[in-house]
Amino acid sequence: MWNRSSSHLTRRNALNRVALGFGGMAFHSLMAETSADSVTVGGPLFPQEPKVPPKAKRIIFLFMHGGPSHIDLFDPKPVLTRDSGQQLPFSGSRVTFAQRGHLQGSPWRFRPCGDSGLPMSELWQHLPEVADDVCMIHSLCETNVSHGGACMKLHTGDEAQLRPSVGSWISYGLGTENQNLPSFITICPTSLHGGVNNFGSAFLPAIHAGVALGTPGYPNSAARDATFESLRNERRSPAQQRLQLDLLRRLHSQRSSGDSELDARLESFELAFRMQTAAPEATDMSAESRTTQALYGLDDPVTENFGRECLLARRFAERGVRFIQVSHANSLPFNNEQWDQHSHLVRGHSMNVRQIDKPITGLLTDLKQRGLLEDTLVLWGGEFGRTPTVQVGNAEFGRDHHTEGFTMWMAGAGVRQGFRYGSTDEYGYYATENRCTIHDLHATLLHLLGLDHTRLTWPHNGREFRLTDVYGEVATGVLA
Amino acid sequence: MRPFIIAIMISNWGGASGLAESTATGKTHLQVQKLFARHCLECHGPDAEQRQAALRLDDKTNATTAQDSGRTAIVPGSPQKSELLRRIVAKDETRMPPREAGAGLSTAEIQLVTRWINDGAKWTTHWAFLPPEDHELPPVRDSKWSRQPLDRFILNPIEAAGVVPTTSDRRTLIRRIYIDLIGLPPTPQQVQDFQNSQSPDAWTKVIDELLESPLYGQRWGRHWLDVVRYADSNGSDENHAYPLAWRYRNYVIDAFDADIPFDQFVQEQLAGDLLDSDARRNEGITATAFLAIGTKILAEKDPAKKQADMVDEQIDTIGKALLGFTLACARCHDHKFDPIPADDYYALAGILHSTRMEDRALETDTFLTAKMRHDQQVTELQATLQKLEQKLTENGNEILFRQAEQFQRGNAARLKTGYGEGIGIISDPGAQKTWVEWDVAIKVPSKYLFQFRYAALSARPGILSINGRTVNETAVNQTTGGWMPQHQKWISEGTFAFLTGNNTIRFESEPVMSHIDSIRLIRVGGADWEHVLADIDHTKTQLNALAENAPEPARVMAVAEGEPHDVKLHMRGNHLSLGEIVQRGFPLLASGVDSETTDLNHPIDAADSGRLQLAHWITDSQNGAGRQLARVIVNRVWQWHFGRAIVPSANNFGLQGELPTHPELLDWLALRLIEDNWSLKALHRRILNSATYRQRTATEPNSLFAGYARRRMDAEVIRDTLLFHAGRLDVTSAEYLGGVKSQDPSPEDLRNNEDLHRNSDKRSVYLPVIRSNTYRFFTAFDFPNSTTSIGRREMTTVPTQALLMMNDPFLMDQAQRFAASVLDAKSELTELTVINEIYSRLFNRVPSTTEKEFAWDFVTTFSEAIDANTSEQEAWAALCHTLMLSGEFVYVE
After folding, report:
1. Total domains in the fold of chain B
2. How many CB pairs under 8 A join A and B?
3. Which ipTM did the prediction report?
4. Closest Cα to residue B559, out of B270, B825, B315?
5. Of B449, B526, B538, the residue nearest B495 (C-alpha)
6. Predicted structure pTM score
7. Is B303 touching A (CB cutoff 8 A)?
């Protein structure tokens, strides 16, 4: 099994555990199942070669907080438009968030895009340019009907209990390619709906927790102002800090040199010092050309914030960060409704798409130009979709949370291009063909990274835990 | 290499001694059980539903009997005939565990199983399911080293391993015990006193002093708060604050200080509200927060599932914290590894489903006194009122009073909450034409003054008619300053004639209606009615004011008895798929006593939830789980003293847990605790007076407890120690320090949260624990997120700690204050004396000459070479800051 009991933390492991890296250790037993006592080369974040040849080396997750409407963005439903105003002709789900109203067709027209003819609604002005790179999954289902439960399910595989997030499992499984940066970075996360638990490491070692760029908050911070915590000292110059570290080293050599635990601790200070240099370099946009900045929409106030997040994601991807999350969430200066349009769907979704359309298109284009899309997987989606029916009681029409069938998409390493996988019924209500649960999605992500979701485990509470609990099947149909 | 294993094993059978220790004791089976639990029991264990091929490797009879296939899994004494062995080494698809389940058994594991079978496959019941037994003290060669009986349990295996036991120097010892017992280092004076003392009982005196210090409860209560997943917010999605949780926290601290017997402490936490103790009734109610402070999924839309989840959280905590078993595993199926059937889970669930969580009032002395005074005032005013009303009638007047909501006809909404909280009002049920009619019986025909009592922030006039005739088209046209009960006023609408018999009063209002509380008619014309009426109104206002300012009892998070009922088994944990009803009861197998004894001694009456019986059963060391409870707590106490427990998996004694390194010692200590009337302080004394505790620091941590394992301070100890050196630590008790927005926090809220912690000088235990937004400094040093019971904190060393320590202003501030205090005290002395003083306070020792040179070199370079403006004081502060970063500062030797 790919696991590691926290009980056999020997002194030598302790050394490995601290020796390198922000993230953690992809543990030795992941590398060689027979040699339980072998020493991991380089420690917790040492980059690990997965056992299954990987298609993707890293993931960029574009998280659409609030629940974008699949039937208004990517999943056209002519029958829904035809029957608009009538009641749902079958019984819907048992638990709903609000009261269900009549069917409501999409106010937007759809058209086929790219050579593949992938349908996108007219809201999308730029994304059609890269339609042929995208693999739609129309059949996501089975998540919690509240934002909190659904966000935690999407990020951690469990809607209620505290579990390690996807990114921290991946950090645990694969380590990272850059020892001076965290293995898992979340850019401008929200503090809502699970908050830090959505990028926490729970019972996995803390070193695998996502590191936030920007203080998690509601609204979440503007990308322009986002920084890592504790990476700067306001009072002491690097030269002064160097003196401090030198003194630490001299004192250590006097008293505890050769003690591996304390050696490792000292090394962690040196690493911290190196990270203080690496992180500002990674987030410094001044090196990006105007053309690149414009590609992401940094020159337009509407797209500037999300564009900046996407550009940061590319910079982290280039530097070997394993899992990067970009959140389109409540950032008040830009958008106070996220995707949660219980009412005012037309206004809200128009604004949301406008904010992300160009930046995402720019990101995919840029990744492709740089050859990064070959080993980077981009995932787009929210915690659920929206009902084909209106929500009762709102003057300006909107849609309720919908968990029975909705759309996410992938692009890049290892997935089919310009492809539609799975489907919903003619009203966009239930996922019908190739139903894909959140566990299935997680299994697929791990598979693309070369990890077997049934074997990436951690002992906790008296049993081996996995990201997918006892569920999950790889959606082989999306694989290239 | 696997095909060779059997061959290697067989060739070794002649001289089995070369392989490992003796297997005759059944000890090997404990390891084999663990191995089975890890690889096999999921499909070949207690859970009938998942069982494959009807084979059970947790059951001797089943495993050693031929299966339908004719093969026998385990043939004692014959590895060759045992199908099990063939399967675990097989290279083809018959290998077990099957390929898709993982890599299979390691060479060492296969050797272990082979050896066990070869030696006769002796079965033992897993140790944790057997009650503790008393043990003779083992023999030791060195008769002088031991100071306590328990030392012999430690010394015996140490001697067997050929290790020479050690004793630490006094400086290390005094620093160790201070940080261990009170979470703060000693002062130079305290160190000196102890080092210089010639008294033979100097050590015992230190122990006594520290155990009696209130700082002890703050430190050791905090350990327990880990176990009970204490927090001041709900966590999870809807993360609401728990502003009352602090009373439970302080109760825990007080209970440790007062050395409340541990069995009583547990009883109080499960059923303190039901115990027969007037003296500790308030403490008892407060203690039940143990069941209430867990995380709840408030956003769950399905109430049945929500309730089941809350009960599950309680069972999980009870199992881990008190019994050392993961009971919650049996929610969905019989436990996969431990003999805990789903029935046991639902028996316990029934007790908790029959229990309500609610905030409860505490009748403290202060409250009772205030309440008595208040009640007296109310009685007096009511008497006055009665007299006044009598006077009015005697004078020939009459008041007819009617609550507005007692109308005979109409479509008005009656509101008993919100705008009508506590009194009941009427208003419109939504914008429409709202009307209401009251029938009033009149005995004396006359003119009556008609009044409404209502609250209105803006005027909502309507039409008033009497007996079908409109008398006022703009009645209820006044404003009173608000919509709430406290804004209500009596307002006259005029004097109208009423007839003998029934009179109908109608009021209609469109589209909205003011918030009307009552109506009254006052027969006018008698003597002095206006004055009396004014007095009546005045008295009523006074009464209302009193009611609003009634003394409030202190409130606590707690539980209370609910509707007693048994629950049905939830098939696969699903609340929508129900099975048989399970009678309320206890997880019997987890107690090590047989069920009949328990049932006879702790019957649950149909009228009880069973919570009180649970409290008694779990602490009953004869016919209940008391001895198991004692094992679990002595194991924890040992861990908190030594950094490593006897059973390292302190929350899981089951098959998936770790085996005790010193099982006899564990049992011996558990039985002594019971004999000592469950006194934890007595247990501390046994341990602290031992030679085991007084050993030198271990060079390599080991499971023999040879040497005292060095460990990093807990997060709170680091913070408290920094504040202590800065001269700022405030150790006085605190209530909820509050002010933390835990629901939908903005960056600003989070900064406030951070500031609240950063700017507080309170001892760490008193800082609020906000789940999911735990203080950054604490989480960096492995403070748990407190969502489940924590048996053992992680101890990590990661660069984030280094970054925090190097760059966080908090550390630099404390270093600066500390440096200033040293310099102030030593202003006339040389720099070397200053360095001595710094070392003496921070490390309780004298620096070496080289260390002094390094330090002085640093101070001069820092202040001169780097920046001409850097003052010497800053350089000293930087020196202190650097020393605070060092391993010596944060590690306990």
Report:
1. 4
2. 213
3. 0.76
4. B270
5. B449
6. 0.79
7. no
